[in-house]
From TrEMBL, chains A, B, C:
Protein name per its UniProtKB record: Knotted carbamoyltransferase YgeW
SUPFAM superfamilies on file: Aspartate/ornithine carbamoyltransferase
Pfam families membership: OTCace, OTCace_N
A GO term for molecular function: transferase activity
Alphabetic keyword roster: Transferase
Family per similarity comment: Belongs to the aspartate/ornithine carbamoyltransferase superfamily.
Length: 395, 395, 395
């Protein structure tokens, strides 16, 4: 329990306003706030491993709103709620985009009378997902101000069009574990690179989340993609500014090999070009199935020109000592396993398979930490209480 | 906690047989029983606000059976179960009408081995919903008598073809809160009126629930609708009898303006005529899609003749002091917001938006109160125990 | 509580390796292990009836994977999880058969970070269901060995292509209750016989589970079916061997009347011939809708030749004293009730209706017992602890 005590001490020493704001983009949080979430997640994971229950809620609902299919995120969120003592309740709105205005305002209040957390995943429509979350947040604030809601539920961004903060923070927690501490990440080279996949339309939020967050801790971040596979320009600008402020660096290259050279960490993953996502958003809004089909055909043909963006043994040999840490948010498109040709070869993936599982295992704790930080101005004190009460999770 | 103590005292002083019967129609309960449910709901809401947990069940299932789509009622029921410590489990029968007889009897028992509550929403088929609930109730009674079930789950009517008791009781709880107490409702004028909506086929259970319940407390209830938009005649008869017994009044008029004149409370809401619901039930049973389409077209044309049944500023000006309390079960059809022309103008709705949210916020507590009253012969004693134990809901 | 104390003493006296292996087929467990599960189930049921909570988990998830529709098993599993303090989380993979290899390995780990139990129902594909469960089990073992998972979730077979262990064990628990104890089952005659049903393609796992389990306790087991309605030959071989070892007997006949003669217990139930299930599996894999339709027509015609395999009063009159115990996993095809002609007449079913409900009521406790036995090397000690703590299930 020395670990937990040390973490609590660290948490108490960090200045944080997280109990007064939603964690919707990592770059809206201060470095100390990010560190606090990491430390809370670590404490919760350690308590769990020590068989100490972390149920701070004795009843209460956690709402989930998933606007596309999801297994991993759904289970991570469900696990986080369960860790804290909340019961999950799914809001099934259909997969169509929700009307804004009165509907959002009303629904947000109607589902929240007994809710302590609302997790939203909305990454299909460029320009809409994060905006929708803010609209929900404002409705909840209003509900509290008007005396409709007894308290403000934590709003959790489970992936939007701009960022995927629970993924990026889980990835960072994994890097912290792998390299020992955050300090050790300074000067580490990480390559966030596009990779070929036989599908199209994968969201931008993972690469954007990675370059938006990893540039905060003095790392040397390289973004690599074929020409035309841009991310949202404003997010790239955020990454550039972050790097300058944190004492790290940020650069863009158009070659996977170039990005891999000397890298400590590689994150090869497919995504759709920003411009394509804009067109796709428009076509989805218009329900233009023919247009969507034509766009898909065009993009798949375009993708097929870049099959050499493939994380192979040869590519890995270019990295530092030939054994950079391979990362992926999963599921990866593994050549010859989940598809004929994909993002990564079977032999590379197999070597890092367990590492990617451990990377993923942080997500429930990151989400739980975000909820805890939003609900308690003194999260250290509540963890201290859990530790002292020492209720067994399993008899 | 003085509030809760006073409520417990009140609860203890009320004569009630609610632990021995299902609460399927408000008019089958005595005035004291209705008051008891209101007082229990109030106590539960206050305990929650004071951060005292109300988990009387340490494990147990609450089953939900929804035979049509529902967000609000689903969340209210889930919240009620969670408040009491039960886990929700959904019985998904598809949306087709369930066979009766052996299937009902068997299913009711199969899902209830570990169940403490069963909530059913079945409002599509006139003559069937409430009857189905009674069939389930009889099967549960038999299961207990035969030693199959260890105890009788509470059966909750989450809306049927005849009544919507959780809605009507939540509405009444809101009126009690708004006007200070039940006594103050005596002599208040409430207008339950039809209003235009661009959809057809909205159930009769809300207006029927309102006239069936509000006539119990000495209110002056006016039911208003265009000619032909009748409710189930037997329910209108119930309202008439109730009013006579409670010292209030009940009248029917065919003009919204007439109903609004001098009203303290207005409840403008669309519904489908009783005769149409009968035809619709028959067509649904026969799976006659063409017939349903023809009926819908006919009804929409009929509705369109009554667009002047619209809750406008001018209409509101007719009410007492020009500021009657506007009520709605939500979602309302708001002209220019959720539809081009609807039940209420945006300006009227906006003025009462927060009021309608507060009205809705009672539903989880009303449902929880109904479960509590069904499970405990001495609900006051169990509330007293919760109060004394004082377990925190949130650490 | 004398009952529970006696059961705990019995549990402590039984040698069991159940905490180190999954309970995937009853014939892979020793007689003492089977007895231990029965005794744990009995203790849990008694504690529940005595209003003592059995929540050994203070938070934790139980995952469900249902590859076909299910109401009864779903509710039994949900009830078992709830009894133990776990929250249910459904993995919805769609109904298509899951890819094997990496996908299984990855998914098994991804859903298990906070899971204590995984229940799988996969009975559609002959040769695949049980194999899939073992693949999941191996992935979980690997996850624990690699440090990805903090502990090994219990894997529960909720029905596969070979066995239906939770059903067969619940049936055995019911027989133990009905006849007083396991010892009394020695020499009892049980007839597991095919019966006519207007549907085809019912799985083999129930009759296979029954002959595979009931032959363990010295019963005289008769398997009866029309020519060509074979079960999986290897399972019939298992039953034969079991009977030889337990001092009971096993025989096959091709007449329902022959099987019923002098029987103490009858279990008339439809199933599809083994060879048909093989063809069906192949056609399902090929997505051959025409082929499936042709096969169905052929089988229904074949079935129709055997409408005399009908559990009638006359047939029952052949049994011991004319009043053998009728068993069924439910729902039964009741002639004139759920179908024109089926497995059993209304009058026979009605006589044993409550008995079949009681039979079914054991399933939640059997599943909970399997989870408990998998998680605790000393299940008796944990039951002792529950008894001593004596936390009320309902206040």
């Amino acid at each position: 329990m020395n670990t937990v005590n040390a973490l609590i001490k660290q948490i108490n020493g960090l200045k944080s306003e997280l109990s007064n704001k939603d964690f919707l983009l990592t770059w809206e949080q201060t470095p100390q706030e990010l560190q606090q979430v990491l430390a809370i997640a670590d404490a919760l994971k350690t308590l769990r491993e020590e068989n100490i229950a972390t149920k701070v809620f004795n009843s209460g609902l956690g709402i989930s709103v998933f606007r596309d299919n999801s297994t991993r995120t759904r289970f991570s969120y469900a696990s986080a709620l369960n860790l804290l003592g909340l019961a999950q309740q799914d809001l099934d709105e259909g997969k169509s985009q929700i009307a804004h205005g009165e509907t959002v305002r009303e629904t947000a209040n109607m589902i929240s009378f007994c809710a302590d957390a609302i997790g939203i995943r909305d990454d299909m429509y460029l320009g809409a997902g994060n905006a929708y979350m803010r609209e929900v947040g404002a409705a909840l604030d209003d509900g509290v101000a008007q005396g409709v809601l007894p308290h403000r539920p934590a709003l959790i961004n489970l992936q939007c069009d701009i960022d995927h903060p629970t993924q990026a923070m889980a990835d960072l927690a994994w890097l912290k574990e792998h390299f020992g501490n955050l300090e050790n990440l300074k000067g580490k080279k990480i390559a966030m690179t596009w990779a070929y996949s036989p599908s199209y339309g994968k969201p931008l939020s993972v690469p954007q989340g990675i370059i938006g967050l990893m540039t905060r801790f003095g790392m040397d971040v390289t973004l690599a993609h074929p020409q035309g596979y841009d991310l949202i320009p404003q997010v790239v600008e955020v990454a550039r500014r972050n790097a300058a402020e944190s004492g790290g660096s940020f650069r863009q290259v158009d070659s996977m090999a170039e990005a891999f050279k000397g890298a400590d960490i590689v994150y090869p993953k497919s995504w759709a070009p920003y411009q394509v996502m804009q067109q796709r958003t428009e076509l989805l809004r218009q329900n233009d199935h023919d247009g969507l089909h034509t766009l898909e055909q065009h993009c798949l043909a375009q993708n097929a020109k870049h099959k050499d963006w493939h994380c192979t043994e040869e590519m890995m040999a270019l990295t530092k000592g030939g054994d950079a840490l391979y990362m992926h948010c999963l599921p990866a498109d593994i050549s010859g396993v989940s598809c004929p040709e994909g993002e990564v070869t079977e032999s590379v993936f197999e070597k890092y398979r367990i590492a990617t599982y451990k990377e993923a295992s942080w997500k429930p704790y990151i989400i739980a930490a975000m909820i805890l930080a939003r609900k308690y101005a003194q999260p250290g004190a509540i963890l201290q209480q859990l530790l002292e009460e020492g209720q067994k999770r399993v008899k």
